[in-house]
Design a protein that fits this description.
- It contains 14 helices and no strands.
- By secondary structure, it is mainly α.
- The chain has one domain.
- Helix 5 packs antiparallel against helix 10, helix 8 runs antiparallel to helix 9 and helix 9 packs parallel to helix 13.
- The chain is globular and about 60 Å long.
- InterPro entries: ABC2_TM, ABC_2_transport, Nod_factor_ABC_transporter.
Length: about 250
């Protein structure tokens, strides 16, 4: 029986050896925070700098984009061809999508935690001091959900390209409405109320409350929702996954 650990190790290695994904997981988010923080440096105060704001919001945005990495690792043509021997081996069919989800989660988490460490050390981004663990745990749970979401979209739409197009649209609309690129409170109360329709808005609020107010009132609801959505999406992967679609 082909061990799950071997499948996972190969999938994880494929991600780390892909220069595009490694760049996207490390260099790109750091540059994104650096550039947006510099361009907006005059629009923020001393207590919360532009680097503080974009250090959190852009990492949320990048974590959400983990779903596209998961979709790519699941249905990219080059990878699909290499998995033929696994598909026809006597292993549970769930090993294929579970391995891709786990590998995407581990790869993205390692890359993003490394970037967060650099942002904290080099740009002095606040992470909550003694509450840093709670801040990072929200990102990790969101990372897990994004990893499952990317694979679920592939299971439903049977296409990496279609899945990535839909995911990119959902991610960018959520990011814009949620104020990840710029704060929405300057556009009036009506626009600000609309921004609360974006799920990432609640993650932003939760993280800033923990970091600057030592307020954990949103932490448990956010954690429970993210974990529940991850489990539900994982169950749906099992429902929609078909081997014939994967090799077709």
């Amino acid at each position: 029986m082909y061990p799950f650990k071997q499948i996972f190790k190969r999938d994880l290695l494929n991600l780390f050896l892909n220069p595009m994904w490694f760049f996207y997981g490390t260099v790109f988010p750091f540059l994104l925070v650096l550039i947006l923080g510099f361009l907006s440096s005059g629009n923020y105060g001393d207590s919360i700098t532009s680097y503080d704001y974009y250090g959190i919001t852009m990492m949320i945005y990048i974590v959400f984009n983990t779903s596209t990495i998961a979709a790519n690792s699941f249905m990219e043509e080059r990878i699909k061809k290499g998995n033929m021997r696994i598909i026809y081996s006597p292993v549970p069919k769930s090993y294929i999508y579970l391995s891709k989800i786990t590998a995407s989660f581990v790869f993205s988490s390692v890359c993003h935690l490394f970037v967060i460490m650099l942002l904290h050390v080099l740009l002095k981004i606040h992470l909550g001091g003694s509450n840093t663990g709670f801040t990072l745990s929200i990102l990790i749970m969101f990372e897990a959900f994004a990893s499952v979401l990317g694979v679920l979209c592939c299971c439903i739409f049977k296409s990496e390209n279609t899945s990535n197009q839909i995911l990119s649209m959902v991610i960018n609309i959520s990011a814009l409405l949620g104020g990840l690129f710029f704060r929405m409170d300057g556009f009036g109360s009506s626009i600000e109320k609309i921004s609360y329709l974006s799920p990432v808005k609640w993650i932003v609020i939760n993280m800033f409350k923990i970091i600057y107010d030592n307020d954990f009132s949103y932490y448990l609801p956010t954690a429970l929702i993210l974990l529940s959505l991850s489990v539900a999406a994982l169950l749906l992967c099992g429902k929609f996954y078909r081997t014939e679609d994967y090799i077709g």
